[in-house]
Amino acid sequence: LTPEIAPSVVRSIAGDATWLDTRPNGRIVQSILNPDNSASESRRKWYNQIGGTEDAWVEPGWVDQTARPDWLIADGEPVVLFGDGSKSSDSTGVVAVRVSDGFIQTIHFQQPTKGNIVDRGLVDLDVTMAFDRLKVLAFWFDPSHAKSDDAIEDDRFWWPMCDAWHERYQRKLKLWPVQTGPRRHSVAFDMLTPAAQMLFQPAVTQLADDMKADDAPHHGGAALKRHMKAARLREGRYGLNIGKETCLSKRKIDLAVCTVGGRMLWRQLRLSQKATTGSGRVVVLD
Predict the structure, then answer these.
(1) Is 0.85 topped by the overall pTM?
(2) Distance between alpha carbon 49 and the CA centroid of its chain, in Å?
(3) Helix (H, G, I), strand (E, B), or coil: what is residue 29?
(4) Low-confidence residues of the chain, pLDDT below 50?
(5) Which among 63, 78, 164, 166 counts the fewest CB atoms within 10 Å?
């Protein structure tokens, strides 16, 4: 998209479309060099390149190239689980990441219809099935700060279920989000805390790099791919973060959050395994 290169690229792509103005100072090149036109728009209109927006987290092509729809996590395979909980307007999802190769597979996705709230029982059912079928070594879930229906000041919509998962699975989980203090928990990973953001935000860039290198395989699925492509980069305190186009956008990104969190947890588990001697002790993060 430079004055030196753009004319030759336009001529090459134009081919036998002789009616196009491909002169170095012609209308097309002037449009490409116009600072009011975004680079993604110029590439789409004049270079026939389909790309993401200027603040896209990943290029759409990266999402498609890393999809492995024929792959599935087999019964008994070691995995980590990561979930992102919402109440009504956003989606709720849980993904599994295979420990051996980082392969990502959605195990739960739910988008409540307008006026309804998420069915937490369905989330619990799929989590229970995952623990029954797979060897879950870690399970982190962001409970959000949504209030339950009868709450006045509390934000406990997801916390009772997180507490139930803690009681049910804590002895099986090898990597806890919080080990000590009043927030001690084997499952609840509060994304609003600085400690959580210090882990999550670098993982945003790491997963994008892995996808670009075709080194982050995922099962695909319309919802997962849609959420990945909708995610936008945002500045964070500890690196780049992801968010929706706007706070009111109907294009959800919750499964993208799950993939970042799942690969983050997968990486933390693998690093902790390298640091242990096989004694079976629990490795935790404060």
Answers:
(1) no
(2) 24
(3) helix
(4) 277-286
(5) 164
